[in-house]
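REQUEST ID: PR-0412
SUBMITTED BY: lab tech R.K.
PRIORITY: routine
TASK: structure prediction, single protein chain
INPUT:
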Amino acid sequence: MEGLVLLNALVTRLLFFLHSLIGVWRVAVVKKEPRYWLLALLNLLLFLETALTLKIKRGRGYKWFSPAIFVYLINIVPSLWILEVQHGNQYCGSQSEELSQNASSKEDFNQTLMSSEDAHGGDSLIETAKVFVNNLSTVCEKDWTLGLHQTFLLMLIIGRWLLPIGGTITRDQLSELLLLFVGTAADILEFTSETLAEKTVRNNPGLVYGILCVWTWSMLQFPLDLAVHHVASPLSLRARGFPSLFFCQYSADLWNIGISVFIQDGPFLIVRVVLMAYFKVFNQMLVFFAVKNFLVVMLHLYRLVVLALGARASLRRRPEDLKGVRGGPAEPLESGVSPGAWEGESKEDVAVPLRASPGTPEDSPCTP
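STATUS: complete
OUTPUT:
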Protein backbone atom coordinates (compact mmCIF):
# COMPACT_ATOMS: atom_id res chain seq x y z
CA MET A 1 0.00 0.00 0.00
CA GLU A 2 2.82 2.40 0.83
CA GLY A 3 4.43 1.65 -2.52
CA LEU A 4 1.21 2.58 -4.36
CA VAL A 5 0.98 5.83 -2.39
CA LEU A 6 4.54 6.76 -3.33
CA LEU A 7 3.93 5.82 -6.97
CA ASN A 8 0.81 8.00 -7.21
CA ALA A 9 2.61 10.91 -5.56
CA LEU A 10 5.55 10.71 -7.95
CA VAL A 11 3.49 10.15 -11.12
CA THR A 12 1.20 13.09 -10.37
CA ARG A 13 4.09 15.47 -9.78
CA LEU A 14 5.81 14.19 -12.92
CA LEU A 15 2.71 15.08 -14.94
CA PHE A 16 2.70 18.54 -13.36
CA PHE A 17 6.36 18.99 -14.29
CA LEU A 18 5.92 17.88 -17.90
CA HIS A 19 2.89 20.09 -18.47
CA SER A 20 4.55 23.16 -16.98
CA LEU A 21 7.63 22.43 -19.12
CA ILE A 22 5.45 22.38 -22.25
CA GLY A 23 4.09 25.77 -21.24
CA VAL A 24 7.61 27.18 -20.89
CA TRP A 25 8.55 25.73 -24.29
CA ARG A 26 5.58 27.46 -25.92
CA VAL A 27 6.56 30.77 -24.33
CA ALA A 28 10.12 30.41 -25.64
CA VAL A 29 8.82 29.58 -29.13
CA VAL A 30 6.33 32.48 -29.22
CA LYS A 31 8.71 35.09 -27.77
CA LYS A 32 11.69 33.66 -29.70
CA GLU A 33 14.03 34.44 -26.82
CA PRO A 34 16.00 31.74 -24.96
CA ARG A 35 15.88 33.68 -21.69
CA TYR A 36 12.27 32.61 -21.18
CA TRP A 37 13.54 29.11 -20.51
CA LEU A 38 14.44 30.48 -17.08
CA LEU A 39 10.77 30.01 -16.20
CA ALA A 40 11.57 26.30 -15.99
CA LEU A 41 13.54 27.05 -12.80
CA LEU A 42 10.20 27.41 -11.02
CA ASN A 43 10.01 23.62 -11.15
CA LEU A 44 12.68 23.57 -8.45
CA LEU A 45 9.87 24.44 -6.05
CA LEU A 46 8.02 21.32 -7.20
CA PHE A 47 11.12 19.17 -6.62
CA LEU A 48 11.53 20.68 -3.15
CA GLU A 49 7.87 20.08 -2.31
CA THR A 50 8.14 16.49 -3.54
CA ALA A 51 11.19 15.79 -1.39
CA LEU A 52 9.58 17.28 1.72
CA THR A 53 6.31 15.41 1.17
CA LEU A 54 8.07 12.08 0.68
CA LYS A 55 10.19 12.61 3.79
CA ILE A 56 7.59 14.08 6.16
CA LYS A 57 4.25 12.65 4.98
CA ARG A 58 5.48 9.53 3.13
CA GLY A 59 3.80 10.77 -0.04
CA ARG A 60 0.42 11.52 1.51
CA GLY A 61 -1.34 14.86 1.36
CA TYR A 62 -1.88 17.51 3.99
CA LYS A 63 -4.99 18.54 5.84
CA TRP A 64 -7.19 21.17 4.14
CA PHE A 65 -4.46 22.16 1.63
CA SER A 66 -2.54 20.62 -1.29
CA PRO A 67 0.99 22.06 -1.67
CA ALA A 68 1.59 20.10 -4.88
CA ILE A 69 -1.30 21.78 -6.70
CA PHE A 70 -0.31 25.19 -5.30
CA VAL A 71 3.26 24.80 -6.58
CA TYR A 72 1.92 23.57 -9.93
CA LEU A 73 -0.09 26.79 -10.17
CA ILE A 74 3.07 28.79 -9.53
CA ASN A 75 4.82 26.91 -12.35
CA ILE A 76 2.17 27.13 -15.07
CA VAL A 77 0.33 30.41 -14.45
CA PRO A 78 3.25 32.72 -15.51
CA SER A 79 3.53 30.90 -18.85
CA LEU A 80 -0.20 31.25 -19.50
CA TRP A 81 -0.02 34.93 -18.58
CA ILE A 82 2.71 35.57 -21.15
CA LEU A 83 0.88 33.60 -23.83
CA GLU A 84 -2.37 35.47 -23.22
CA VAL A 85 -0.65 38.86 -23.29
CA GLN A 86 1.13 37.87 -26.51
CA HIS A 87 -2.16 36.47 -27.79
CA GLY A 88 -3.24 39.81 -29.27
CA ASN A 89 -0.13 39.97 -31.47
CA GLN A 90 -0.39 36.42 -32.75
CA TYR A 91 -1.38 35.83 -36.36
CA CYS A 92 -2.95 32.69 -37.73
CA GLY A 93 -2.35 32.36 -41.41
CA SER A 94 -5.05 31.79 -43.96
CA GLN A 95 -6.58 28.40 -44.44
CA SER A 96 -4.69 27.82 -47.67
CA GLU A 97 -1.37 28.59 -46.01
CA GLU A 98 -2.19 26.23 -43.15
CA LEU A 99 -3.16 23.46 -45.55
CA SER A 100 0.04 23.89 -47.55
CA GLN A 101 2.12 23.88 -44.38
CA ASN A 102 0.35 20.78 -43.10
CA ALA A 103 0.82 19.02 -46.43
CA SER A 104 4.53 19.83 -46.57
CA SER A 105 5.01 18.86 -42.95
CA LYS A 106 3.24 15.55 -43.53
CA GLU A 107 5.50 14.81 -46.50
CA ASP A 108 8.57 15.62 -44.45
CA PHE A 109 7.28 13.43 -41.65
CA ASN A 110 6.63 10.51 -44.00
CA GLN A 111 10.06 10.87 -45.56
CA THR A 112 11.65 10.90 -42.13
CA LEU A 113 9.76 7.77 -41.16
CA MET A 114 10.92 6.00 -44.32
CA SER A 115 14.50 7.01 -43.73
CA SER A 116 14.28 5.90 -40.12
CA GLU A 117 13.07 2.47 -41.16
CA ASP A 118 16.07 2.16 -43.50
CA ALA A 119 18.61 3.46 -41.01
CA HIS A 120 17.35 1.82 -37.79
CA GLY A 121 19.63 4.05 -35.77
CA GLY A 122 19.43 6.42 -32.86
CA ASP A 123 19.92 9.44 -35.14
CA SER A 124 16.77 8.58 -37.08
CA LEU A 125 14.68 8.66 -33.88
CA ILE A 126 16.06 12.09 -33.06
CA GLU A 127 15.22 13.33 -36.54
CA THR A 128 11.70 11.92 -36.24
CA ALA A 129 11.22 13.70 -32.94
CA LYS A 130 12.42 16.98 -34.47
CA VAL A 131 9.97 16.69 -37.35
CA PHE A 132 7.14 15.89 -34.91
CA VAL A 133 7.97 18.99 -32.88
CA ASN A 134 8.05 21.08 -36.04
CA ASN A 135 4.60 19.79 -36.94
CA LEU A 136 3.33 20.88 -33.54
CA SER A 137 4.86 24.30 -34.10
CA THR A 138 2.74 24.81 -37.23
CA VAL A 139 -0.43 24.76 -35.12
CA CYS A 140 -1.99 28.20 -34.69
CA GLU A 141 -0.78 29.96 -31.54
CA LYS A 142 -4.33 30.78 -30.47
CA ASP A 143 -5.19 27.10 -30.59
CA TRP A 144 -2.05 26.32 -28.61
CA THR A 145 -2.99 28.80 -25.87
CA LEU A 146 -6.55 27.49 -25.67
CA GLY A 147 -5.24 23.92 -25.58
CA LEU A 148 -2.92 24.76 -22.70
CA HIS A 149 -5.83 26.31 -20.80
CA GLN A 150 -7.94 23.20 -21.33
CA THR A 151 -5.22 20.72 -20.41
CA PHE A 152 -4.28 22.89 -17.42
CA LEU A 153 -7.75 22.57 -15.92
CA LEU A 154 -7.87 18.86 -16.74
CA MET A 155 -4.51 18.38 -15.02
CA LEU A 156 -5.86 20.05 -11.88
CA ILE A 157 -8.78 17.62 -11.72
CA ILE A 158 -6.84 14.48 -12.66
CA GLY A 159 -3.92 15.45 -10.44
CA ARG A 160 -6.17 15.97 -7.42
CA TRP A 161 -7.74 12.58 -8.12
CA LEU A 162 -4.38 10.80 -8.35
CA LEU A 163 -2.76 12.50 -5.37
CA PRO A 164 -2.84 10.31 -2.26
CA ILE A 165 -5.53 11.21 0.26
CA GLY A 166 -4.20 12.94 3.34
CA GLY A 167 -5.45 14.52 6.53
CA THR A 168 -9.06 13.83 7.47
CA ILE A 169 -10.58 13.86 3.96
CA THR A 170 -12.40 10.66 2.99
CA ARG A 171 -12.97 9.13 -0.43
CA ASP A 172 -16.58 10.28 -0.36
CA GLN A 173 -15.43 13.84 0.32
CA LEU A 174 -12.79 13.52 -2.42
CA SER A 175 -15.44 12.54 -4.97
CA GLU A 176 -17.53 15.52 -3.87
CA LEU A 177 -14.51 17.77 -4.26
CA LEU A 178 -13.75 16.45 -7.76
CA LEU A 179 -17.33 17.10 -8.85
CA LEU A 180 -16.98 20.66 -7.59
CA PHE A 181 -13.73 21.00 -9.53
CA VAL A 182 -15.35 19.84 -12.79
CA GLY A 183 -18.08 22.48 -12.61
CA THR A 184 -15.63 25.14 -11.49
CA ALA A 185 -13.16 24.36 -14.29
CA ALA A 186 -15.87 24.58 -16.95
CA ASP A 187 -16.97 27.99 -15.68
CA ILE A 188 -13.40 29.30 -15.50
CA LEU A 189 -12.61 28.12 -19.04
CA GLU A 190 -15.74 29.80 -20.34
CA PHE A 191 -14.82 33.01 -18.51
CA THR A 192 -11.36 33.30 -20.08
CA SER A 193 -12.30 32.15 -23.60
CA GLU A 194 -15.41 34.35 -23.72
CA THR A 195 -14.04 37.61 -22.30
CA LEU A 196 -10.55 37.54 -23.83
CA ALA A 197 -11.97 36.75 -27.26
CA GLU A 198 -13.52 40.22 -27.55
CA LYS A 199 -11.61 42.72 -29.73
CA THR A 200 -12.44 45.54 -27.32
CA VAL A 201 -10.75 43.61 -24.53
CA ARG A 202 -7.72 42.70 -26.66
CA ASN A 203 -7.17 46.31 -27.64
CA ASN A 204 -7.02 47.34 -23.97
CA PRO A 205 -3.93 45.85 -22.24
CA GLY A 206 -5.06 47.08 -18.82
CA LEU A 207 -8.34 45.23 -19.20
CA VAL A 208 -6.49 42.07 -20.25
CA TYR A 209 -4.31 42.29 -17.13
CA GLY A 210 -7.38 42.81 -14.95
CA ILE A 211 -9.15 39.76 -16.38
CA LEU A 212 -6.01 37.66 -15.93
CA CYS A 213 -5.76 38.82 -12.32
CA VAL A 214 -9.35 37.71 -11.66
CA TRP A 215 -8.61 34.41 -13.43
CA THR A 216 -5.50 33.86 -11.29
CA TRP A 217 -7.47 34.69 -8.14
CA SER A 218 -10.07 32.06 -9.05
CA MET A 219 -7.32 29.43 -9.34
CA LEU A 220 -6.56 29.69 -5.62
CA GLN A 221 -9.59 27.57 -4.76
CA PHE A 222 -8.09 24.41 -6.28
CA PRO A 223 -5.44 23.74 -3.58
CA LEU A 224 -8.11 24.03 -0.86
CA ASP A 225 -10.19 21.16 0.54
CA LEU A 226 -12.19 23.31 2.95
CA ALA A 227 -15.48 23.10 1.05
CA VAL A 228 -15.94 19.38 1.86
CA HIS A 229 -14.74 19.21 5.47
CA HIS A 230 -17.71 18.74 7.81
CA VAL A 231 -16.80 19.57 11.41
CA ALA A 232 -19.02 18.11 14.12
CA SER A 233 -20.20 20.64 16.70
CA PRO A 234 -20.09 19.50 20.35
CA LEU A 235 -23.07 20.21 22.56
CA SER A 236 -21.08 22.59 24.75
CA LEU A 237 -20.75 24.98 21.80
CA ARG A 238 -24.44 25.82 22.21
CA ALA A 239 -23.58 27.59 25.42
CA ARG A 240 -21.13 29.86 23.60
CA GLY A 241 -23.87 31.44 21.55
CA PHE A 242 -24.86 31.82 17.92
CA PRO A 243 -21.47 32.53 16.21
CA SER A 244 -19.67 29.43 17.54
CA LEU A 245 -22.57 27.10 16.76
CA PHE A 246 -23.17 28.62 13.32
CA PHE A 247 -19.57 28.54 12.09
CA CYS A 248 -18.86 25.04 13.39
CA GLN A 249 -22.10 23.34 12.45
CA TYR A 250 -22.13 24.67 8.87
CA SER A 251 -18.39 25.03 8.25
CA ALA A 252 -18.34 23.20 4.89
CA ASP A 253 -21.38 25.08 3.59
CA LEU A 254 -19.91 28.41 4.66
CA TRP A 255 -16.60 27.68 2.91
CA ASN A 256 -18.47 26.68 -0.24
CA ILE A 257 -20.50 29.90 -0.15
CA GLY A 258 -17.43 32.03 0.56
CA ILE A 259 -15.41 30.48 -2.28
CA SER A 260 -18.23 31.00 -4.77
CA VAL A 261 -19.07 34.57 -3.74
CA PHE A 262 -15.58 35.95 -3.16
CA ILE A 263 -13.34 33.84 -5.42
CA GLN A 264 -15.36 32.77 -8.45
CA ASP A 265 -18.94 33.86 -9.23
CA GLY A 266 -18.70 37.21 -7.46
CA PRO A 267 -15.53 38.43 -9.25
CA PHE A 268 -16.73 36.96 -12.57
CA LEU A 269 -20.02 38.85 -12.22
CA ILE A 270 -18.19 42.13 -11.51
CA VAL A 271 -15.96 41.71 -14.59
CA ARG A 272 -18.89 40.93 -16.87
CA VAL A 273 -20.97 43.81 -15.56
CA VAL A 274 -18.03 46.21 -16.05
CA LEU A 275 -17.56 44.96 -19.62
CA MET A 276 -21.23 45.55 -20.43
CA ALA A 277 -21.78 48.79 -18.50
CA TYR A 278 -18.52 50.66 -19.01
CA PHE A 279 -16.89 49.18 -22.12
CA LYS A 280 -20.19 48.55 -23.95
CA VAL A 281 -19.33 44.96 -24.77
CA PHE A 282 -22.46 42.94 -25.47
CA ASN A 283 -22.99 39.46 -26.80
CA GLN A 284 -25.42 36.68 -26.07
CA MET A 285 -23.02 34.49 -24.08
CA LEU A 286 -21.72 37.38 -22.00
CA VAL A 287 -25.23 38.36 -20.92
CA PHE A 288 -26.19 34.76 -20.23
CA PHE A 289 -23.20 34.03 -18.00
CA ALA A 290 -23.58 37.37 -16.21
CA VAL A 291 -27.16 36.40 -15.33
CA LYS A 292 -25.93 32.95 -14.32
CA ASN A 293 -23.30 34.43 -11.97
CA PHE A 294 -25.90 36.76 -10.47
CA LEU A 295 -28.31 33.89 -9.80
CA VAL A 296 -25.58 31.77 -8.23
CA VAL A 297 -24.54 34.61 -5.89
CA MET A 298 -28.15 35.29 -4.92
CA LEU A 299 -28.83 31.60 -4.26
CA HIS A 300 -25.74 31.34 -2.09
CA LEU A 301 -26.79 34.40 -0.09
CA TYR A 302 -30.28 32.91 0.27
CA ARG A 303 -28.76 29.66 1.54
CA LEU A 304 -26.66 31.65 4.00
CA VAL A 305 -29.81 33.22 5.43
CA VAL A 306 -31.49 29.80 5.64
CA LEU A 307 -28.52 28.33 7.53
CA ALA A 308 -28.47 31.30 9.92
CA LEU A 309 -32.19 30.90 10.65
CA GLY A 310 -31.68 27.18 11.25
CA ALA A 311 -28.88 27.79 13.73
CA ARG A 312 -30.98 30.45 15.48
CA ALA A 313 -33.92 28.06 15.76
CA SER A 314 -31.62 25.41 17.20
CA LEU A 315 -30.52 27.82 19.92
CA ARG A 316 -34.13 28.71 20.73
CA ARG A 317 -35.02 25.05 21.24
CA ARG A 318 -32.17 24.58 23.72
CA PRO A 319 -33.79 26.35 26.74
CA GLU A 320 -36.90 24.20 26.34
CA ASP A 321 -34.77 21.06 26.25
CA LEU A 322 -32.86 22.13 29.36
CA LYS A 323 -36.12 22.96 31.14
CA GLY A 324 -37.35 19.45 30.49
CA VAL A 325 -34.05 18.03 31.71
CA ARG A 326 -34.14 20.04 34.95
CA GLY A 327 -37.72 18.96 35.68
CA GLY A 328 -36.92 15.27 35.22
CA PRO A 329 -34.72 12.78 37.04
CA ALA A 330 -31.68 13.79 34.98
CA GLU A 331 -31.29 17.15 36.73
CA PRO A 332 -28.10 16.25 38.68
CA LEU A 333 -26.32 15.62 35.33
CA GLU A 334 -25.29 19.29 35.27
CA SER A 335 -23.06 18.69 38.25
CA GLY A 336 -21.53 15.65 36.57
CA VAL A 337 -23.10 13.00 38.89
CA SER A 338 -25.91 10.65 37.89
CA PRO A 339 -29.01 10.35 40.13
CA GLY A 340 -28.22 6.76 40.97
CA ALA A 341 -24.96 7.79 42.64
CA TRP A 342 -26.95 9.37 45.50
CA GLU A 343 -28.69 6.06 46.15
CA GLY A 344 -25.53 4.13 46.81
CA GLU A 345 -24.76 2.96 43.30
CA SER A 346 -21.25 2.00 42.24
CA LYS A 347 -18.71 4.50 40.98
CA GLU A 348 -19.03 3.16 37.43
CA ASP A 349 -22.47 4.80 37.29
CA VAL A 350 -21.06 8.28 37.84
CA ALA A 351 -21.50 10.27 34.62
CA VAL A 352 -18.42 11.66 32.89
CA PRO A 353 -18.66 15.36 31.88
CA LEU A 354 -19.18 15.82 28.16
CA ARG A 355 -16.15 17.25 26.35
CA ALA A 356 -16.66 16.81 22.63
CA SER A 357 -18.57 14.65 20.23
CA PRO A 358 -16.75 11.58 18.88
CA GLY A 359 -16.70 13.01 15.37
CA THR A 360 -14.84 16.16 16.37
CA PRO A 361 -11.06 16.12 15.82
CA GLU A 362 -8.91 16.99 18.79
CA ASP A 363 -7.20 19.80 16.90
CA SER A 364 -10.40 21.20 15.46
CA PRO A 365 -11.10 24.87 16.12
CA CYS A 366 -14.63 23.83 17.13
CA THR A 367 -13.38 21.70 20.03
CA PRO A 368 -14.22 23.38 23.36
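NOTES: The chain has twelve helices and no strands.
REVIEWED BY: pending
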